Amino acid sequence: MFLKNCWYVAAWDAEIDAVELFSRKILGVQVVFFRGADGKIGALEDKCCHRLAPLSHGRREGNCLRCMYHGLLFQADGRCVEAPGQERINDKLRVRSFPVVERDHFVWVWMGDPSLADSPLIHDSHWHDCEDWKAERGGYMHYEANFELIADNLLDFSHLAFVHRNTIGSSRQAEVKPVVERLENAVRIKYFTLDSPAPPFARKLTTLPEMVDRFQTYTWNVKSNYFVQDSVIASVGEGIDTASKNAMRVHTTIALTPETEHTTHYFWSAAHSDFNPALEGITRLLTEQVEAAFEEDRMMIEAQQRTISASSEEGMVAIPGDAALMQARWMLRNLIRQETAGLGGRSAASTELERA
Amino acid sequence: MFLKNCWYVAAWDAEIDAVELFSRKILGVQVVFFRGADGKIGALEDKCCHRLAPLSHGRREGNCLRCMYHGLLFQADGRCVEAPGQERINDKLRVRSFPVVERDHFVWVWMGDPSLADSPLIHDSHWHDCEDWKAERGGYMHYEANFELIADNLLDFSHLAFVHRNTIGSSRQAEVKPVVERLENAVRIKYFTLDSPAPPFARKLTTLPEMVDRFQTYTWNVKSNYFVQDSVIASVGEGIDTASKNAMRVHTTIALTPETEHTTHYFWSAAHSDFNPALEGITRLLTEQVEAAFEEDRMMIEAQQRTISASSEEGMVAIPGDAALMQARWMLRNLIRQETAGLGGRSAASTELERA
Amino acid sequence: MFLKNCWYVAAWDAEIDAVELFSRKILGVQVVFFRGADGKIGALEDKCCHRLAPLSHGRREGNCLRCMYHGLLFQADGRCVEAPGQERINDKLRVRSFPVVERDHFVWVWMGDPSLADSPLIHDSHWHDCEDWKAERGGYMHYEANFELIADNLLDFSHLAFVHRNTIGSSRQAEVKPVVERLENAVRIKYFTLDSPAPPFARKLTTLPEMVDRFQTYTWNVKSNYFVQDSVIASVGEGIDTASKNAMRVHTTIALTPETEHTTHYFWSAAHSDFNPALEGITRLLTEQVEAAFEEDRMMIEAQQRTISASSEEGMVAIPGDAALMQARWMLRNLIRQETAGLGGRSAASTELERA
ipTM for the complex? Predict the structure, then answer.
């Protein structure tokens, strides 16, 4: 069960060039992406409407894509404009096409009703390309797990003390109580770990003392599965906004795009402030630390998925720490229910939520 | 859905020797072939009727096959003739057996009702062993695709201009209109590409000029999935039958035997006239060219099968070029319907076709 | 279909140490075993009751097991005794636990109703650790086959002449008639091959003459899938109990524990008398011979399973040699029927059998 009428990150912009065709499965549908001679990205179902050959075995020609089985030529809107040996072209010769928008180095795709695709709904990721933040682009992991298991992890905090005890977490975090706030189609969590030992990655990369204040603010957008974490690790007592320059500020972005019910594309970046100018290669070093932590999650979540697949999801017992993920799951189910019922657009969804 | 009451190529004769047992799945049934002391080939279901151990783990003894689990000995007709420790043998101890005929170096098997098996129904392939034609035997490919997708390809012409543009096709072939003729249980197509650049393989192997006439006559037999192509590439204006000796005449034989619904055995040969006596190793060189072209098909068709398996065969839009394959698919469905309805024999099928 | 209310061998004791956690699937349920600080083995379902993460990715602490996803700590009885950040622990936070007994170097587990678990029901294997017998411990094979196909093999004799003709069998054994006796929940078979050529492994390891008497007594316990073979190979005419010291006495133990419907754990040992003191490394040499024979079985039975999986178990025709395995299959079905009907305990089962 996926929410369809929303934007999903389909790729990093650099993955789609003007030479090769790029095929990726999104919400269970194989999509071929190509960059036309005009630089614009087209997205078509990767299946020719004639005999169902994959268009990704085809060839870009101008702003079009040619199927290299029987030679049909398609525009980015899916219309067939040339069929070898035919004078007239049947109007039914059309491939499904998908709205695409490039923004902040992400390629966003809309898999639902194209008439509802509205680019202002796309989430902001301006830190991928601005002066205040430094970030590597291109972070990607393939997950052998349903996207909700990953979302659960992003909305949980106690696991920092166990899964990430050697990287980005610290044992004291198991006892901190997060504050969960409900926004429109989003959940925000504030998780402040005060006067506590710095996590291993901060000890490696910063000039901070052993005891620190850590301020983590998470925002999970149920539409788009789009996650942003603002994290500040500062000397004790300095405060979030007033912390010195050596406070470690990191802006972690994660977009989860379902590939299938049991696999997920995980796009990510970790943008940071200039908290330790003396440290050479700081962006690479930080990226490595975050990647190691994400691998720790992946090991656990894929194992969890295997356990669930081998039996079922039945028998989960909730604990108080599950509050945030429960909110998010409830919101998503509500939105999917509305979408399935055909209430569709944003305003209907909002109304429903206000009544709830 | 397979047609059962017809002969299928099961193997090349050289695949079945007097030492090893040979097991191959045909129409979803695992069959063990063995060559008896008398030189005759036996074909039994590869499953002992006692505890279902595979007979291919057994041992040939004379004209019989012994299961090496509990020692039961079977004749080529499937009857158990020895069971260790037993005086009397239960008449039910029988393994399913299949009619087999060796002809023109092909081993043909009949998977349907044995009482309908009639060897005159076997298609002619005398060019595997005669003076006028030179051919390598043993051509075999395993396809991860349903046999009908391969048949579609054999009955289509526009793909020559795209899939085979670097081997046996030429771009001009996309525009040629084939003539499709309906025979009894067969489709014949004439596809003449006149005054056109020679395809790459002809340029490599012949002494022909750059511009040629190409005459291709395809016959697809719906029973047996048996395909023969007569191809003549000659200097412009010479005609099919009156062409000079340097005209390239090739007789391509293909037999498609379903292994399962999604996999197929592809037996093939390319017999040729002596069109370029000066070229050493001409048979090998031609075989390599044809094999390369068949690999091009396989890449595309297996990709097409994966696309279909991932979603469904729904949504195909026919174009005028599909006329021949549509005829063949219609004939096959008709024959399967008759077979399932128990109309069985050849005459019933013919009557039905005449009425249609 | 498995019998649940009985003990199954889960592991050799040495497989479960105090450092690593040990996870194995038993009757379709993934179970994590751990040895507590007190040396006792705990067995829990390998699935945390919170979010279903595998406990085998966790950590032993004292006599408890901690889930390393969110840090819940469980006792060997399955109760959660610590949840980070929580003062009170929900009584529903419980993982399924299984009774475990260590005896004669086997670790036995009870997968059914724990209230029926009764350690006197555990079969004797004292020869794993006593003066009269020498044995290697740790014999284990993983079978890609249903346990009943393996049981069939253990209860059959004619295959010794075919499958094991180069190891532990001899061709004359195909004709011997076994005596089958029915016990409570067990089948006993006496299989005496008199005045017959010694099997290859006896020729390699003993000082016996070429012609021997061989006395094989098999006991198959339907509960626990527990098999013991007493085998004596002696000079002709000496008799089972009165044979000389150079008679080869072997006590073969096999326990089949279903992993899934199509895979099985096969625990085994071959304990022997001191029949050839001059032969160095006799225990190793004998173990190698037995292992080779068990591999011969495995090759055949896994092939048989593949054949059955590809079609079905239908169409088996019984022969007189199947008497013992038919008895065992009948007993097992009867016990499973009673268990499913809730008759459960031992006395009910016995009553039913007596009536039958």
Answer: 0.91
